[in-house]
Here is the input.
Amino acid sequence: MKLQHMAVIFVIIFLPIILVTAYFISLQVDTIKLQESYDKKLLDATHDAMSAFELNTANEDLSSVADSLRSIIEASNNIFFNTLTTNFGVSNASKSYIQPFIPAILYTLYDGFYVYSPTNTPEVCTDLKGQTISTDSKGVTFERTINFNGKEIGVYKFNQDALVYDENGTTESQYAIGFTESNASVNYNTLPNTVKQEYGQLLYKNNDGTYSTVLHTSGNYATSTAYKQSYILKSFISYATTYSKNNEYNVTVNYTLDNFITIQGDIKGVYYSKSGYFISSKLINKITVDGVDIGVSDWTRYSEESWLATINNPENHEVKVTLCNGTSPDGSLSYTTISNRDGAYLEYGVTKYWEDSMSSVEYYIKAWLFSSWIREYLSDVCATNIANNDYEIFNNGETAIRANINSDKTNLQDDMFHRFNNDVGVFPFRERDDYLNDPENKESPFALHKRNVIKNSISYNLSLSMIVYTEWNKITEFNMPVLSDVEWERIMSNVSIVTFMQGLKCGLKYYNNYAIVSSTNNEITVTPNEIYYTPRELGFNTESSGSTILASLDYDETQLNHGAHISTAHRIDCPELPSIPENPLPYIADLTYISFKSKEVKYDKVYDKENARYVYDHQVYTDYTCIVDSNYVVDSNGEKIDGNTNVLKYLIDGRSSNS
Amino acid sequence: MDGVATANKLKAYRIGVAKERNNLYKSVAFTENYGYKILNNNSGIVIYGNNINNTINLGPFSNNSYNQSAYPDISHISKIELVIEDSSGQFGIYTTTMSVGLNGVQWYSNTQTIPTTTTSMRTIDFAEDFTGGTLSSLIISLNNNSRTTLKSIKIYYK
Here is the structure.
């Protein structure tokens, strides 16, 4: 065979293969492009949803009230669909086109989370005006009873034509007058004894068009309760779990994104309901009241109320709290003392006290009382005491853990509890009362356990949503994507929105991805890294009025070394944040920093709603470098800062730059 | 940074975080808002309708952890919160009304309607411009032929 023939055969054989492969690769490239564009659309919409959430919480004084928060989340949800549908080239009116591809939207908030997901809901019987109908309404007739799991359930029919409406649209004498006299068809006396308790209760629709007061699913489809598919924002779910141990405690602990916890339940026969910030026993080193040292172990000496009264009376009492910051570079321990008289200033010759100092001393005292109480009452609580009826996932995990503990106490494999052994609990203060057990340290057993509790609760509820969603679709199987540890960390450090989009045709495959957007600028949580500081200059940006004090103090701006940075707020570890001079003038001795928890500092924002105090008289702008995370938040090794511990360390080390 | 500057920034950081957390503590919905838990009873106290003996003597306030020993001034009280469960009524009684009395003075102007068809736990609030001396006893009243179990009482200050 000539070389030319071989070449022709080669071309005949390989050309189609090359063409097909090239076509396939181009399809793959198109798929990846399409997937990227879907990713971008999803992220855009999620970002818009978070912006709406931040804006609404910032401008809503009642945003911490649960119901108000719910409406804010529903609004944020609408914005999400609005942006997503617009990005897909359809209007929000065509939301139903996109909705089937969104199996769940997760809102993680400060003390719990919301899930927006498809749900099966029973249909309540209503008349044509939308008024709910119960068994004693006019138009309802009793048909028969059916047996469900050994209990009798009444079956009713409803006739709309029996209702007569007045000019206001309401029915006249719709409800029964009494238990014996009634103008309705169903009468208490005539109901069979087995279903008498159904009198007056709401009716739910069955599949065959009849109604019952009890939700039931029996073998007979026709007489079972009819469920409809709807997308709803489910009830608020707390980051909570229950711990129980025979005759000792049965308590529910509600965790939050930071170290604030709420404890409710029974401890040794007494029901408690307490909440507060849980701090390390090493944090508070010394407490003095009017110069008298109150031992840090003597937490029952005064009631919380008398502490608060003392702290908020700086004219007559001084409360000083000495905090241990950790180890300095020279090996010594670093301490900071704050007093309720810090930052006092003169106004018209009268000494005024600073709200921030009182508030911060109050925080440490309250946290100290609460944490001491926990140490005394709950130090026995172990992760293995999580109540059996909590979550199925937890249940299974716990069973596995128990098996492990029984066989080998030192070798716990399950990562849910792997930091705990049999002797160390959730509030482990007896064993190692050191830095590692600081609840604010993300590596502490408490923080790890808390994260596991939150993670399990979220995973469980999201998985449920996915399962329901798969049942609806029948064609595509939806799975809960595996979130990485870094992503979980983001979700559990800040208020976040996680949106899932699945099942959309995307080139050669079905799209399956999610987007996470975290908020660092909202009014419902405090992130230590996201607090901004500016020097508090007497008479300038304090709550005191300006000119009189400036005149009386012979104010000399050149003594302040912040120069051009005046009226700019920075993170505490920003090198641009002005230092207070080593030898300040007498009136600057009181000078310290004011702080804001919002990037968007509103000078007219009143933080103390009860007293309406702390109104700033000028606006402070936030340093650009500080508000863009990627520009700034790295330590000297170039590693990202991930918590206040590192900021603290930077401060203790006295480094000049954290960038 | 020199030592003074470092110390000042450390102090600013401590005050900043604590102040913001304390403000959040005051504002979050689930905090106790200076509420006093004055009865914590796991087994509960059964309250019967039409029974004049539903009087609970409060004694000096104590929540079993701090040495509180003061009787609160009634005019300082903004709200009384009761947690009840196992509410029930005789046949035909589907709701009942509940009112509270402070030191024997009954406040009928603020009654609450509770269903007797469910045994689940619920929280009942009595908010009123209460007046009187110092609080030493509480009377809980229910309608005839109904009963409930009182699990806890919490007093909130204004």
Observations:
- The radius of gyration of chain B is 21 Å.
- The longest strand of chain B covers residues 35-48.
- Chain B touches chain A through 52 residues (CB under 8 Å).
